Amino acid sequence: MRAATRLSWAIAATTVLALTATSCGGGNGTAGGSAGVVRASWGDPQHPLEPANTNEVQGGKVLDMIFRGLKRYNPETGEAEDEMAESIETTDQQNFTVKIKPGWTFSDGTPVTASSYVDAWNYGAHLENAQIASYFFQFIEGYEDVHPSDENATPSADTMSGLAVVDDHTFTVRLTEPFSLWPETLGYAAYAPLPRAFFDDHDAWLAKPIGNGPYKIDTYTKSQSMKLVKYEDYAGPDKAQNEGVELRVYTDNNTAYTDLQAGNLDVIDDVPASQLSNAEKDLGDRFINQPAGIIQTVSFPLYDPAWSSPEAAKVRQGLSMAIDREEITSKIYFDTRTPATDFTSPVLGDAGGYEEGLCGEFCTFDPERARQLIEEGGGLPGGKVTLSSNVDTGSHRQWMDAACNSINNVLDNTAACTVNPVPTFADFRNQVTNRQMTGMFRTGWQMDYPLIQNFLQPLYYTDASSNDAVYSSPEFDRLVNEANSASDEEEAVAKFRDAERVLVQDMPAIPLWYQNGTAAYSTRVSDVKLNPFSVPVYTDIKVS
Amino acid sequence: MGRYVARRLLQMIPVFVGATFIIFMMMYALPGDPIAALWGERAPDPAQMAQMKKELGLDLPIMQQYWNYLIGVFQGDFGIQIASRRPVMDVIGDALPATLRLTVLAFVFTAVVGIAMGLIAGLRAGKKTDSSILFVTLLLISVPSFVLGYLVQTYFGVKLGWITPSVQDSENWGELLLPAMVLAALSLAYVARLTRTSVAENRRSDYMRTARAKGLTQRRAVGVHLLRNSMIPVVTFLGVDLGNLMTGAIVTEGIFNVNGIGRAVFRALNTREGSTVVGIVTFMIIVYLVVSLLVDLLYAVLDPRIRYA
């Protein structure tokens, strides 16, 4: 009896093996992909796919495909252009009248109206809706009532008093203070309009989001894949040039790269670090490496008495000049980082406020002058300095070692700069926000929108949300305020540049390098490019 | 027998509570705040943080959090993820089928091929076949699974193009075959070696001589008498290994992009999703407990001298 059971087991096992062996042949059939559909790599979005609840690139990719807001950043120049906005008018840089174009619909067929915007913004701002990107609405009057900043306070209003619907296609916005570049911020996904379905059946909407963009979601299998198809009634000018996009979740970008090489995937937007040295050879023109709106800096704890003295600025400038950026970006990053020469990013373009070389000699490697400046500033506090960062992501450990080595060589002292690796990102950020740093620490900034304001105000304005260095300069604040109330863009940008020059003198943070976005694509597709946020412009991709 | 099983099942309760408690505390003890990490490099919004903590019950004392969690688990509620706001049950439910398929394939492969290789080697102990099987298994033991995984992927996936380099559809058994073989390689080598030693030793035992003396065919003597008696150490190993295959597939799942438990727990650990980690680990504990009970019961089947009271 037992022998019989064992035998049947063996037979069953062999059958399973045989079955799998035969079905193996069938597996290749799926490799081609359906006609006209772009197969692209994706990562699981961290948050539910709500416009105001997405602050990372993977969720942002989808929002960029299924939503269009008032403005859209030109994928090539980064300039904010009217998308759904007919006009945004103001006379005092504080009260805006927004008119939207008629004829736009959500993919469920309902029209996009002024209330689609006002309701969406009120939802995004309200504390109880727990939206991660609520702060985008902080400039609108009444934000403090729906989203008090105090820890234990409860909202005293349901909607922001600064928003009012005039008619189906017009609404007005009142800001708490003048902000001339505010209309230019409206290209960000958080400002997208939302259909009634979002409010009526929230769970159903989350399972399959509905937007007004060039694509609509066909199927969504969480943590596995999302299939998007072209939205035929899309009213915007940038209609999809392909039939759809299939996003596939990859946990390991090496696997995505291998799949791309095997012709199993069409677009990847993050070439693994280990393949950077081969990518150009493997793929030739199909490898994209261009600046993204990300700048990496090293900040100083200006709340620490050792770093807050007026002379310490010279030490900071000296340290900046002691770091050999060229060497690090080419040896460690294979030129996927570009040495920084100002506090913004090349994606802004010259008209948008980027100025190559604004930082001048202080961002140029010069051992002689570096030593001199550090000496003039009274030397390193306590004779040494630490450089801290989390080491669980990126190649932080490598560049930190290289930067410290560079400083040590300049000062001819092997113990001058030491690396302080913090195991996890969460722990590192905890220490930074609790103001526990004593030496240099890594800070990075990924822009929310391609505006010079976004690279300066949130980081260096007194008490700003991401002012990790706790920098405070009345001169800088004054120039930023002036820039914000300037009546035209050119004047605003000029003022911001003046403010940036204050930073160069005070050096609360050392600009290290601009991060590039990398992407690669298969021979099956063409016209692949990255927008200023390093996200592929899916609508333009053509499938052959 | 019945009483033994009942006793073992009762013993599972303290093991279960103790293990979940330890994991829960470990997740809590990790430095950094998972809610603050939601904002990335940006300064978190204190009002929003307080609001979220209240909503998720993370503002309560740790013991009370654990108590609430335990009560939830007994009602089938494993909590919800902090960032994605998905119920942990859904996350596990999505990842489990792929892992189960991969495990079943790997397990069958390990057991069938491993025992067969071990038997052949054991019966020809000291001969050329034996040496070559020993050599192959040594190789499999010493090569890390990620090396094997990438090798197989590059060679069969990219060079030869027999398979797609990654698993396109985790419901397709055929696509899972190769990842399962990579996953099974290490266990397979152990099983083969265990079986070989056991078989080589028992081959010379008294009962084998008796079996042959009473005129049994070689096939029957080996198949019924020798193999059955040699299986005890192998079954013990296979039992524990079933759990290992399920949880230890992080690397293999990553290389072949299989959406399974290993990947889910890895992601959850990175983002410090405590409830997800505890939920998955709790599930794995149950698997281990049940399998080890089954293994113990199997001993009695293999060797009638073993009895449970």
From TrEMBL, chain A:
Q: Does the keyword Cell membrane apply?
A: no
Q: What is the lineage of its organism?
A: Bacteria, Bacillati, Actinomycetota, Actinomycetes, Kitasatosporales
Recite the UniProt keywords alphabetically.
Signal
Any GO BP annotation: peptide transport
Protein name listed in UniProt: Oligopeptide transport system substrate-binding protein
GO MF terms, alphabetically ordered: peptide transmembrane transporter activity
Solute-binding protein family domain segment(s): 83-466
* Protein source organism: Streptomyces harbinensis
GO CC annotation terms, alphabetical: ATP-binding cassette (ABC) transporter complex; periplasmic space
From TrEMBL, chain B:
Which keywords has UniProt assigned to this entry? Cell membrane, Membrane, Transmembrane, Transmembrane helix, Transport
Q: Which Pfam families match?
A: BPD_transp_1, BPD_transp_1_N
Q: Where are the transmembrane segments?
A: 12-30, 98-121, 133-156, 176-195, 277-302
Q: Tell me where the signal peptide lies.
A: none
Instruction: Give the matching SUPFAM superfamilies.
Output: MetI-like
Primary location:
membrane
User: In the UniProt record, which is one GO cellular component term?
Assistant: plasma membrane
User: Looking at the record's lineage, which domain of life comes first?
Assistant: Bacteria
Q: ABC transmembrane type-1 domain: which residues?
A: 96-299
Report the locations given in the UniProt record: Cell membrane
**What biological-process terms (Gene Ontology) are attached?**
transmembrane transport
| This protein's record includes keyword Cell membrane | yes
Looking up CDD domains in the UniProt record yields:
TM_PBP2
Q: How does it sit in the membrane?
A: Multi-pass membrane protein
What InterPro entries does the entry give? BPD_transp_1_N, MetI-like, MetI-like_sf
Q: Which family does it belong to?
A: Belongs to the binding-protein-dependent transport system permease family.
The protein depicted here goes by the name Oligopeptide transport system permease protein
* Organism listed in the record: Streptomyces harbinensis
